[in-house]
Amino acid sequence: MVQSIKTFLMFEGRAEEAMNFYVSLFGDAAITQLTRYGAGEPGPEGSIHQAHFTIKGQSFMCIDSPAKHGFTFTPSMSLFVDCDNAAEVDRLFAGLSEGGQVMMPLDAYPFSPRFAWVTDKFGVSWQLYLPQS
């Protein structure tokens, strides 16, 4: 087996909603594997036991945790997205910031002509970056 590293996102009942949302925002994204909890299993029947999806060639996993926990995502770990153009930054910003929180407003910065840092409605932190020309 080839060793790999994936970003793992743990939700409490919103994994499918989040995964579908992310896949809908990116043109190069797909759900590649999905298993659900069945009757009598630890999680609520039909919730996500484990799912795999890709965005821009990067692999992600997500689950609906059957165990309640006292923590969630933190902005100290964020998904850094290299965008192809300003329109992509703007589109992703509009989608990811809706219902979320803007941590750095969409603007030009010394390190990028178009950049924003947002936490989406699921609590996942995203940095949207356009490289200097």
From TrEMBL:
<dbReference type="Pfam" id="PF06983">
    <property type="entry name" value="3-dmu-9_3-mt"/>
</dbReference>
<feature type="domain" description="PhnB-like">
    <location>
        <begin position="4"/>
        <end position="128"/>
    </location>
</feature>
<protein>
    <recommendedName>
        <fullName>PhnB-like domain-containing protein</fullName>
    </recommendedName>
</protein>
<dbReference type="InterPro" id="IPR028973">
    <property type="entry name" value="PhnB-like"/>
</dbReference>
<dbReference type="InterPro" id="IPR009725">
    <property type="entry name" value="3_dmu_93_MTrfase"/>
</dbReference>
<dbReference type="InterPro" id="IPR029068">
    <property type="entry name" value="Glyas_Bleomycin-R_OHBP_Dase"/>
</dbReference>
